[in-house]
Specification:
Length: 259
C-alpha cells in the first residue's frame, strides 16, 4: 500500500491553478493523496472560483492577507498527518507515473529528506533550476540585459545552473521550490519554511537546513513535471526589490559569497 501524501499549493491569482487541480484530480484519483490549496488574498472572483474545488480530497483556505510563499505552505503543513508533503507551485502539471517514481525513491531510501524531479517547460525543454552553489555574482548576472556579457560568462552560468548534470539519479545541494517532494518527519524536524522570506530564497534556505540536519536531497530526472515558469523578478521592479531583500536576508543568515 502506498504511503499517504499531501500536495500543498500556495497561489496568488495564478491563472494555471485550475488546470493544475483538474489534472491532479484525474491523474492521482486512485492514490491516497490529499490536496491543500492556500490562497494568498487573491481577487474575489478568483477565490470564488477556487471555492468550487472544495471537496473531500481538496481543501481550500482563503487568506485575507498575503503573508508569503513559506507562510502558506507552513499553514498547510501544520494541519497534515500524511507521511509525505509536496510543495507544488500553482503552475506545475504532474502525472501519476512521475509522482510514483519520486514516491518510491523516498520509500526506498530513508536517508533522503527531499526529492526533486526534472522540471521542463510546456514544450519539454529543461528548465535549469538546480543549483550546486549560491553566490551574489551569479544571481545578479542573470539580470544583466546585455547578451554579450552573458556570453562572456556563459561557461560560468552553465556551471551555476548545473547544465552538466547527467540523467542519472543523484544527490544535489539545492532543488527548486517549484516542486519539492518532502519527507514529513524531516520537514517537521527543521520547523518548515523560514517565514522571514516572503518570496524567493526560502527554498534555498530550506535545502540548507535539511542538509544541515543530516538529510539528503535527491534529483530524479526520470520523473518530470511541467512548469509554466514566469520569471516575475525579471519583469516587475517591485518584485525585483522583494528578490533583493530576500537575497540579503539569505546571505546575512548563511554568510556572504560574492563569487
Amino acid at each position: 500500500m502506498l504511503d499517504s501524501v499531501t500536495i500543498s499549493i500556495v497561489t496568488h491569482n495564478s491563472k494555471h491553478i485550475f488546470q493544475v487541480l483538474d489534472q491532479i484530480k484525474t491523474e492521482l484519483a486512485t492514490l491516497p493523496v490529499r490536496i491543500m490549496v492556500f490562497d494568498n488574498a487573491s481577487a474575489r472572483a478568483y477565490q470564488n472560483q477556487l471555492k468550487a474545488y472544495q471537496s473531500d480530497q481538496i481543501q481550500i483556505t482563503l487568506a485575507t492577507a498575503n503573508k508569503g510563499f513559506g507562510f502558506g505552505h507552513n499553514y498547510n503543513f501544520a494541519r497534515i498527518k500524511t507521511t509525505y508533503f509536496i510543495c507544488c507551485n500553482p503552475d506545475i502539471l504532474l502525472k501519476k507515473t512521475d509522482f510514483t517514481l519520486m514516491l518510491h525513491q523516498l520509500q526506498a531510501r530513508p536517508e533522503i529528506s527531499m526529492v526533486t524531479p526534472k522540471i521542463v517547460d510546456p514544450k519539454g525543454k529543461t528548465q535549469y533550476l538546480i543549483r550546486r552553489r549560491l553566490d551574489v555574482f551569479d544571481y545578479l548576472l542573470r539580470f544583466v540585459p546585455f547578451g554579450f556579457v552573458k556570453r562572456l560568462f556563459a561557461r560560468r552560468l552553465a556551471h551555476y545552473e548545473c547544465r552538466d548534470l547527467s540523467d542519472q539519479t543523484q544527490l544535489i545541494k539545492y532543488g527548486s521550490g517549484a516542486f519539492m517532494f518532502l519527507r514529513t518527519q524531516a520537514m517537521r524536524e527543521i520547523g518548515g519554511f523560514d517565514e522571514r522570506f516572503f518570496m524567493y530564497f526560502e527554498d534555498n534556505d530550506l535545502c540548507d537546513r535539511l542538509r544541515q540536519a543530516g538529510g539528503k536531497i535527491c534529483y530524479v530526472p526520470a520523473a518530470q513535471v511541467v512548469h509554466y515558469y514566469a520569471r516575475d523578478s525579471h519583469k516587475h521592479f517591485s518584485v525585483f526589490i522583494i528578490f533583493l531583500k530576500s537575497m540579503t536576508k539569505y546571505f546575512n543568515k548563511w554568510g556572504w559569497q560574492f563569487f
